[in-house]
Amino acid sequence: MRSPVGRSLASPWWRGAAAVVAGSLPALAFPEPSLWWFAYVALVPWMLLVRSAPTGSRAALDGWLGGIGFMIAVHHWLAPSLHVFLAVLAALLGLLWAPWGWLVRSVLGGTPSPGRAAAAVAVVPSGWLVVELVRSWQGLGGPWGLLGASQWEVAPALRLASVGGVWLVSLLVVAVNTALTVLISVPRIRPRLAGAVSLVLCALTVISVWTWAPEPERSGTARIAVVQPGVVEGADARERRFARGEALTRTLAGQDLDLVVWGESSVSADLATRPDLAARLAVLSRAVGAEILVNVDARSTDAAGRAGIFKRAVLVGPNGPTGDTYDKMRLVPFGEYIPARAALGWATSVGRAAGEDREHGTRQVVMVLPGEGRGGLRFGPLVCFESAFPDMSRRLVRDGAQLLVAQSSTSTFQGSWAPEQHASLAALRAAETGRPMAHATLTGTSAVFGPDGERVGARIGTDRSATGVFDVPLARGTTAYTEFGDWAVHAALAVLAALCAADGARSFRRRPGPVPLVPPARTAHESAAHPVR
User: Fold this and answer.
1) Could you tell me the CATH number of the domain that includes residue 309?
2) pLDDT computed for residue 217 by the predictor
3) Going along 229-343, which residue ranges are E strands?
4) Residue 169 belongs to a domain
5) Residue 150 and residue 253 in one domain
6) Within 13 Å and on the Cβ side, how many CA atoms surround 350?
7) Residue 41, helix vs strand vs coil
8) Residues 202, 294: one domain?
9) What's the number of domains the chain is made of?
10) Distance CA 58, CA 51 (A)
11) d(C-alpha 391, C-alpha 389), whole Å
12) Contact 228, 258 (CB under 8 A)
């Protein structure tokens, strides 16, 4: 007799609803809930549901519906901006989990052999990682909500990130979920033993990395200040925000600073056409005795002569803009541009989508602070959700950056999970590259992380208009991730290729031989038993 739960899951509607809910559970591991430990069990209900699917197509459907739940839960704070379009995007991106659902059932469905159960601990995480890789493309929204990013405050996970990036952490998290699924669902002792052994191997992997991976070698300290003006509203909000940032920066005089960082869109006019604003910033630089990195969100022209609206990091010194600038390269889909605007321009009528596309930059830049003593510090600027892309911070460090600086806003999403989620990404980028990272915003959350990913000082929350001064430890040397890049992704692709090859070889061996064109000769015994008449 079926249990009530079994009878409910037999209904396609109840089963679909269960898949959506199960897929949404991992969102609790991310900030603000920050139940980091929950990530190691959050996928188990979803995987148990998928492995019980009666057919491969039903498993793929459960994977798709769970993907929808995951995308909506992790990005629910976008609803005020996208409205119904959030559900449309979630449905499209959720399709990426349909093959993963089929894969889970194929290796864990029924009663898998011990070998199949053990292989699943490598195969299922590899399939998940391919989903994360594909959806990390900037045109599909970028790598926000990667499962490994939920471990941003766990020291062993951060050490793991220094070896294989956030990708390796995602592999570990999904591997633990897979091993637990084997232990729970497979009644035979040997497959359950395979799950237990897999958990032990995961633990040994973390311990080995913790022991082997070199810690960043400290090479001095930089004194960095972050200016967070806080929420400013009203018709003249841009002018008053600039004035508040100006007033806060003046309070930093005499603190022996190397760099002052303002948030994204902290200046709303092109400094080339507003010499008065450039002059005010130069006065501030002289007052605090340090360069100021501001962010201009205005219509201007770039070095190649392109005209449009740019998000531009500008370094200002005591004599005005130094000439060091960086134009944001990876823009937020719908927030800063609309993909295929001719077809999707209607999104502006149902949410706060970009009314006009921003222009993107063409290259990353490493800026150098002038001066003696601690002058000469090399830092790499990133703007807004560019801090979510591991390859961008890695490129800056390979180009010589000693410090990573992200300028962000998140003012649209006050009161949601977004500010904390965004700030937490800086911890991953710092750990991956072995370089400290400062995350400065207009309205919070602002935070600074050392080269090991550990927080430096206290964060500045979304309820404050304040400055923060941080003695940031610098480091030298190269992490394995900086040196070798996304090798964990390549390993996952190799695992899936090996699975396909093994299944293909198995199918070939099972293929029946050719049917003979003439009947085979009968033996003497057969002829005596059945004489020809």
Assistant:
1) 3.60.110.10
2) 85
3) 259-261, 291-301, 307-317, 320-327
4) yes
5) no
6) 14
7) coil
8) no
9) 2
10) 10
11) 6
12) no
- Confidence (pLDDT) at 484: 95
pLDDT at 533: 43
Query: In the 3-class helix/strand/coil scheme, how is 335-376 assigned residue by residue?
Result: CCECCCHHHHHHHHHCCCCCCCCCCCCCCCCCEECCCCCCCC
- The DSSP secondary structure of 61-82, one letter per residue, reads HHHHHHHHHHHHHHTGGGHHHH
3-state SS assignment for residue 269: coil
Bridge partners of 317, per DSSP, are 320
Q: What was the pLDDT predicted at 371?
A: 64
Averaged over successive runs of 10 residues, the pLDDT of the chain (533 residues) comes to 57 91 97 95 97 95 97 91 84 96 94 87 96 91 93 94 96 94 82 76 78 83 96 86 96 96 94 94 96 94 87 96 94 76 63 74 94 74 95 97 94 88 97 97 94 95 94 95 95 93 74 58 52 47
pLDDT at 356: 74
Q: What is the pLDDT of residue 458?
A: 93
User: Which amino acid is it at 282?
Assistant: A
Please report the pLDDT score of residue 1 as a whole number: 46
Residues 284 and 373 in one domain: yes
The answer on 187 and 306 residing in a single domain is: no
Domain ranges, residue 381: 218-329+364-478
Residue 29 belongs to a domain = yes
110 shares a domain with 189: yes
**Dist CA 185 CA 183 (whole Å):** 6
Q: Is residue 337 part of a domain?
A: no
Q: Mark whether 277 and 149 lie in a shared domain.
A: no
- In-domain check, residue 196: yes
pLDDT at 235: 76
Phi, psi of 211, rounded to the nearest 5 degrees: -75, -40
| 258 and 394 housed in the same domain | yes
Instruction: Report whether 199 contacts 180 (CB < 8 A).
Output: yes
Helix (H) or strand (E) holding 217: strand 217-228
d(CA 261, CA 322): 15
Rg (CA), the chain: 28
